[in-house]
Amino acid sequence: MSNSKKSKKQPTSPKDQNLEQFREEGRNKTMTTNQGVKVNDTNNSLKAGERGGTLLEDFILREKITHFDHERIPERIVHARGSGAHGYFELYENQSNYTKARIFTDTNRKTPVFVRFSTVAGSKGSADLARDVRGFSTKFYTEEGIFDLVGNNMPIFFIQDAMKFPDLIHAVKPEPDREIPQAASAHDTFYDFVSLTTETLHNHIWVMSDRAIPRSLRMMEGFGIHTFRLINEEGKSHFVKFHWKPLLGVHSVTWDEAVKIHGADTDFHRRDLWEAIEAGHYPEWELGFQIVPEEDEHKFDFDLLDPTKLIPEEMVPVQRIGKMTLNRNPDNFFAETEQVAFHPGHLVPGLDFTNDPLLQGRLFSYTDTQLSRLGSPNFHELPINRPINEVHNNQRDAHMRTTVNKGKTAYFPNSIGGGCPHLAKMAEGGFTSYEERIDASKIRERSESFNDHFSQPALFYRSLEEWEKNHVAAAYTFEIGKCTYDHIKKRMLYVIAQIDNELAKKVAKGIGMEIPKEIDNPINQAIGADADVQKYQPGKKKNYLDKSKALSQTHLKSDSIISRKIAFLVSDGFDGDDMMKVKKELEEKGAVPQLIATHGGTVKCDKGDEHKVDAALLTTESVLFDAIFVPGGEKSLEALLKEAKAKKFINEALKHCKAIAVNKEGEKLLDETYGKNFKDDASVYINDSVTNFIKGIANHRNWKREEKAQDIPA
Ligand code: HDD
């Protein structure tokens, strides 16, 4: 983990230099209109007399208001809410066996990247902690052009064919008559669709798991999802799945926390990413390849072209081939994070697509959406979207063109322009599509090899630890419990039972219904059986692997506490030495201790020294922290004990299974809360060493506590 103090703002990469020419800052400059005319007054419009009518000739007023009136552009139809950051990618080892893409063969390169994380369903202003998939899009500005890896934090997708994407999104978005609920899948239309479209069930069970409520955008995996191709210099193709593995481990919050964070800080993830980068705690991910040789394409029990299937890491291990570091926050949210335009079709030589029908449909959708969102086919000229290498072609004009193309010719072939821009010879690395042999009939059908909808959701569920399974059951119960149509709830129980009967029983109990036996074919019941529907029913469940370790977060931890936020609960008179000792040791490990006091301003320790308060109890919440420390100090404890909020802090942290350390008199606060029942808990530290406390924080949560702790009425 990098640990330098401040993100650098000087141009540090080719992309940064390229952005630098577009940056503007008004410091020490005179205000002008957009036409460059100096402005003396931006507070008063031009009037006919002090109390008279405003004059139409006031071009300064007109320009200011007109520009303001048009400030907004349409938000993304999906992934509207997002947060971005700049960084770079470095390769560990030459991958030329598999690909000729220079970013994967040249270990001397530092390829600039821009990453945008997002939620899917909510609007631009929706809360970060929605139970949802997270988008994980990376723009690699390579010297051979732009490569976009437009993935998610889950390794599979809801549907198998792009044709169904509008249906999926219409079902999950707020219901169109009442525009409710915002950024939430827990409603009738979504479950109507999911229960009728069993191919969704794999991605859906991931959304019911803790992966859908990450602790931080920096603590989640990323996946390219589709099977892509890598092409080497000899033209040989290997199939590949892309993985991002976070060096901070994979961690989540509980649903109870997510609900409370919604209120305490709707920007929780955006703030967390921003603050970590500003503090020099640069998030890092390793890029992994899962490689399948061409000749092994058909050796699996599922189809590699089916995006609702993952390749278990036990079957094909992930080779970590490089590392991405995010080290710079954007200068301007709109110019960069909002205007960035990703596209799975942005590829460089050495990479290629497969016939995954979801991927193929995406190749159309992304440019199309930029046309309405950014308003012009010239969106590639926006600073954030510009490649770092030169662009030359005969495309011309259109809205807001900024390139000034010189010369007479805008066609090919030409002789007047010397035949330029000339075609890339193969030696110069022009893009050539993989020559896949095709001999087929034109048909509108789904391959029967895509016909297994239950084996992998079942594998996922089996692979989870008990605490994770409990969270999944609770999530299904919550979501389906929010539906209002009984037939939808029944159909959901029916399909969950096909994933795992015990899971379905728990959910059925929670929503107060029986698992129906009579629906033997949910799709036929709902839409009427015809030949096609009969043919493409979910196939029989297969069991090709009992469990996959990589699917459970238990196995995806790290021992780092970098950037973890620790609340130190204090009031005047706290034990200064005690506080400073713990603070120093935590800071040495990269954690971020914050003084949370009974009042704002400064707080005095028992030695009389003043310490700046980071937040008063009134202005913050337990759910915004990873762990709590209460130092000693008689007077401090007396004051804390009078504050109901201090007790609430402890009770909530206990409920959410977080590490809590108390020293000396600090124990009194524990005794006055549910803490008194948890003194033997493995991550409650009473006068213990900071080293042990650090282990507890790195462990993220003590899930063994959860069964008992969920009775805490916090
Ligand atoms: Fe998509 C945006 C990820 C299938 C159509 N998608 C978008 C973003 C991510 C994904 C991360 C946000 C990009 C950003 O930050 O600007 N989408 C996926 C993944 C998919 C997927 C991982 C399946 C594996 N998407 C998908 C399909 C379609 C779309 C099948 C249409 C047929 N996606 C879009 C879009 C968006 C988009 C409407 C909205 C904004 C944008 O493209 O630029 O075109």
From TrEMBL:
Catalase core domain ranges (all copies): 32-420
Names of required cofactors: heme
Record keyword Transmembrane helix present: no
Domain of life, per lineage: Bacteria
GO molecular function, a single term: catalase activity
Listed Polar residues bias regions: 29-46
InterPro entries in the cross-refs: Catalase, Catalase_AS, Catalase_clade2, Catalase_core, Catalase_haem_BS, Catalase_immune_responsive, Catalase_large_C
Protein's recorded name: Catalase
